[in-house]
């Protein structure tokens, strides 16, 4: 047998699991909850008002150590698997250090620590934690303990303790997606009505069109699951990969080639809420590096309800990864998305594939792809998905 493909697990960890079979999952979930909560806090008006960045940073370090401990003690890997994990981890650490942002690195630690953990429990934990955290922040904003920023777009939009209304809308989209995955899209009529109520309420408060679209598509996919699954089978994994890859390529290419004197580019830029012109500015002022760079940005979120004299923020997840974390990290992420799509389609996990497609579409506009307090679908790369394989639809 090839020694590089032999699997190994620390004997000490095996002995611990023999006595405490629940311990590996427990360590993962403590790490998971800590990182979700600290990332969540950074997207609210609690951050730097009541809770300092120093505290958040130290908690995340503890969570990261726990994730690594779970992997080292309880997970078996081949030598080639360990080498690949270490190599990618070092690359992402260097990229995060250069970009001065560690969300991607901590997501990676959780991703490898999620090996063999039941994704159903991950989704349930995420849903419960995020729901409680949202209710707490809403209450704090309601009673004036933290600011409840309001913005003047349309008839007025509210952040309800978040940094910006679009962040609030994205929270609800990812919350609904997590619940849908927990139920493997097998929702009752009252649950579907509740989804519709959340969608209407979210748009009423935030006026966010992108999240209205993806939430509406999610609900439609749940209602017409058999038909959507049939279409996915006909399109095939290769077709889905090509279509989504084309969307990402068009976004990146249009941002790079954007010219404000072009009628076509101007129209597209308006449709994408000025994201093409902002992406073009990023290319002109910073360009793409191999492993990342710091890019100072200032958006509306968390600081002002008035227009800024020099607004500059890269919203698209793909452009943020490419410009801030470098070409290598960008390719790693694209490879991960392609791998997940292939895995879901091969195993007929169509609920997961639908959510992945919606997340990929949403990430063209928003920056939450690599924030685990929003998006948990990437954890499905190594997590146990057995609960969803025996679908009641087939």
From TrEMBL:
This is Polymerase. The chain crosses the membrane at residues 20-41, 53-73, 79-109, 121-141, 161-182, 212-232, 239-258, 318-340, 349-366. It comes from Ligilactobacillus ruminis. The keyword Membrane applies. It comes from the Bacteria. The lineage of its organism: Bacteria, Bacillati, Bacillota, Bacilli, Lactobacillales. Signal peptide: none annotated. Keywords: Membrane, Transmembrane, Transmembrane helix. The keyword Transcription does not apply.
